[in-house]
Amino acid sequence: MNALAQVRHLLVNDVRRLRWMLVGYAACVALATVAAYSYSAFSPGWLELTPVLVFLTGFFVVASAVQADSPYRPDAFWVSRPIHPASVLGAKLVLAMLVLALPMAGLAWVLAQTGLPSDEYSAALGGAAVSLGPWLLLGMAVAGVTHDLRSFANVFVALMVFFLIGSIAQIARSGSTLRSSEGATALATMLFRAGPLVLLTFVYLKRDSLNRARAIGGALLTVWLVALLFSAPSRSLFPTKDVVIQPEKAPQVTLSLDPSAPGDAPGTLRLRVRGKPWRDAARLVVSVNSMLLHARDGVTVQVSRVPAMVVTLREPMPEGSAFPDLAVDSSFVLTLSEGERRRMAPGIESIEVIGDVVPYAMRVVAVLPFASGAEVQQGGTRFQLDSVQRDHVGSAAIVRTVTVRTQQQDLSKFAQMARVLPRFLLLEDGAHGAIRMGSRSSGTSGGWMILPGATIIRTWTQVEAMTPLLTTTAGSPVAPARLMVLEWKSLGQASLRVRLARE
Amino acid sequence: MSMVEVNRLSYSYGRVHALRDLDMTVPAGALYALVGPNGSGKTTLMQVLLGLRRAQGGSASVMGRDCGTLNASDRATIGYIAEGQSLPGWMSLRQAEAFLAPLYPTWDAALARDLRERFALDPSRKLKTFSRGEQMKAALLCALAPRPTLLVMDEPFTGMDALVRDDLVRGLLQSAGAEGWTVLVCSHDIAEVEMLADWVGFVQKGRMRLSEPMDQLHQRFKHVEVQLADGAGNGHSSPANWYSVERNGRMLSFVAELDGSDAAVAALHAQFAGASRVDVRDATLREVFIALAREKGASPVEVAV
Description:
With about 500 residues, chain A is of the alpha+beta class. In chain A, about 40% of the residues lie in helices and about 30% in strands. In chain A, the strands form 2 sheets. In chain A, strands 3, 4, 6, 7, 8, 9, 10, 11, 12, 13 and 14 form an 11-stranded antiparallel sheet that branches. In chain A, strands 1-2-5 form a 3-stranded antiparallel sheet, with no helix packed on it. In chain A, a hairpin with a 4-residue loop joins β3 and β4. The longest helix of chain A is centred in the N-terminal third of the chain and has 30 residues, at about 85-115. Chain B is built from 10 helices and 16 strands. Chain B has helices at about 40-50, 70-75, 95-100, 110-120, 130-145, 160-180, 190-195, 215-220, 260-270, 285-295; strands spanning about 1-15, 15-25, 30-35, 55-60, 65, 80, 150-155, 180-185, 200-205, 205-215, 220-225, 235, 240-250, 250-255, 275-280, 305. Chain B is globular, with a radius of gyration of 22 Å. The interface of A and B includes residues 9, 75, 76, 79 and 81 of A.
């Protein structure tokens, strides 16, 4: 029987030996998969524990497999048989791969249902593999140098305490003047991922080496801890608080003075801001902080009470797609006071607008019917509406989102934050316009999705109608409406100071 | 040709020396019994021979191959039963046979069936449901069915009743004789070992105290029982080659280590010329074992000559 045949022979034997444990493990995986698939914002909290169950049972399956054929006990059944230790090790590793593959398959299937972008999909799977894989190897290595499940559990709990101390030390160290090292980070990661495999290989291939194996394990652990102390803080422990925006040159903005004063209000001006569409699904938000009105006789009046931000949505929103009209065209109405009008009586020679231009990349993440129980899934996020109120008093709802967060995503970026906490617009059917929905309160919770590596983030946001946005056609306050979920990404900021002279 | 060759073998557990410069030779085809007190290093020696522990000093070889380099092919020709051998309890005996058979090119299914019947083992029962004795029989079956060239057994009779032990020994004797196996057995059951072995090695404190054919042992070690003459009492210390010396009134008994010659026995008789009765016979292995295992008393027995 060659080595490969031995691996297969031993693997089949292991699977038969551990069949009931594997059945239990598969049941845990199935439960976690169903829990993740149901993927509901209304899921009971205990379902969030199922990934932990998967993790622990998987752990004990591989530990049991190793201890069943102890690599160091001289009275183990296999040691005096014509079996190469590498074959035993190979069979254990293949079994560990099966243990890993089972929840990975569940995760792959669930993620496929979420509509997650392909790069995040593969990142989530890869993240799960590199998260659980080293833990399984660590479990196997600990099982390899302990003689029963009890001593295994004891050593493992001790290791967890050790890890905890290491993490606390790392957090404590982050405030000190000691410098972090990328090399130390790489070493700590490498040791965590490869150290257990090295130890396991050693203990299987080198007979009568338990003490040496334990010494090697202790040395690896010590080096790992030291490397951890000098490694750069991980993002999971230290999420970046500051939003880093790569400054980009703001596009050209044109301000125009609307000669036709609206309505019958004397001294009322309409300011229209126009910008060239400069990239797909991008918007300019012009924030006007103040205006200087220069009269013909040299008198200047400063007006600060201008709306901080005006966004006009001029066209009906097609469902689930980008805005068709990419041209920036915002306007606001400024009514001069009696005194200002008197001072401007000789006529306005020029207007100086002082403010900021902030370009935003934006996309429509989802559009839902504004009704209780409405649900839509888009781009890895599921949106659900609850407690919808729509009457003459106003419109309000609780928006629940369940989103898959992967290691690929960088939560420091606004886009991802916006995805977790999106913005909302209420689109009234039959009306050309939108109502901004503001949030009164919100909350977030999260947990593993079958395995570590992919995380489910659940949020709830209580929204209510705020500012009507340029409703060109009045809608009925009780007419059917849709909730549009927007994602905005600030791309930079440019100061604005424009002087508009009368032609 | 020797099947096992050990030269100046040493092994320590930390500061505890299990084996010290131990020498041993097991001829091919021998039924070699390794005896010695608890903690004398027998099990460690066997584990080194099986390559389960690495020699820390000296050398050990099995079938001409260094024990530290035994590979799967070598192990296929060695049957081993460890002391308290662990078995895959979740398997039935039939499953265990099915698991092992493909691993051994020489696995003899007929012999396995024969042994199963002889040991009265139910092949469908899980091994964990077997009694201690039955488990040892199952382990023996697994070790014997591949028809090993060398069979190494560490306390194989533990937990077996006398009938089974006797049966097993007879079976082993038959098989070993017919197959030409070399058997190395370590046991506290001296009576069974004596029945089985034609060679014996006595290990004491990690050293080989003696290693020789059983016949030679019997020739060299004599059990002497003397009924001393009336009034005997003015004696002196027993010689260094007398072990287990006991005196009870006029009765004196001891085990004498001689050179195996008739002259030495005659000299012993002459030494007790004045005694009422002198009985000299071959010492049993048990008597030799006890004699060698016991330290000589601090206060030597006074004997009259």
